[in-house]
Amino acid sequence: MNYGPLDEIDVLHEHQRKGVATGMWNHAIKLAESTYRGVNKRVPMPEHSIFRTPAGDAWAKSTDDSVPDNQFDRYNSAREAYEDR
Q1: Do 74 and 57 meet the contact criterion of CB atoms below 8 Å apart?
Q2: How many CB atoms are located within 10 Å of the residue 44 CB?
Q3: Nearest alpha-carbon partner for 60 in 2, 76, 52, 15
Q4: Where are the beta strands (DSSP E) in the chain?
Q5: How far is CA 45 from CA 12, 63, 82, in A?
Q6: How many whole angstroms separate alpha carbon 74 and alpha carbon 64?
Q7: What is the reported pLDDT for 3?
Q8: What is the distance between the alpha carbons of residues 18 and 16, in angstroms, rounded to a whole number?
Q9: Over the stretch 12-65, which tens digit does the pLDDT of each residue have?
């Protein structure tokens, strides 16, 4: 089994608002917690990204987990300014 960072959670539009992303998030937490207690400590705890779309930001805040400040708008503004040079 391969382990790596949780880069994003995508849910098809027709399945959104049904708890699918939250279920995947909670499963990732349980997997990390169970492997941390055991011999295999290769699964890190998931963390919310600092780059979230407005929908992703609302979802992250709904999980009641620690949510870092969202840098999405700042990043896009800086990128646009750079591209306009």
Answers
A1: no
A2: 14
A3: 52
A4: none
A5: 24, 14, 34
A6: 24
A7: 58
A8: 5
A9: 999 999 999 999 999 988 888 887 665 556 777 888 888 888 888 999 999 878
- Note whether 7 and 25 are within 8 A (CB): no
Do 72 and 53 contact (CB within 8 A), yes or no? Answer: yes
- The answer on pLDDT for 84 being more than 90 is no
d(CA 79, CA 63) in angstroms, rounded, equals 29
Q: Which pair of tokens denotes residue 45?
A: 């705890």
Residue 4 has pLDDT above 70, yes or no: no
> Comparing C-alpha atoms, which of 36, 9, 13 is closest to residue 24?
9
pLDDT tops 80 at residue 5: no
Between CA 22 and CA 45 the distance in angstroms is 15
Angstrom distance (rounded) from CA 79 to CA 9: 23
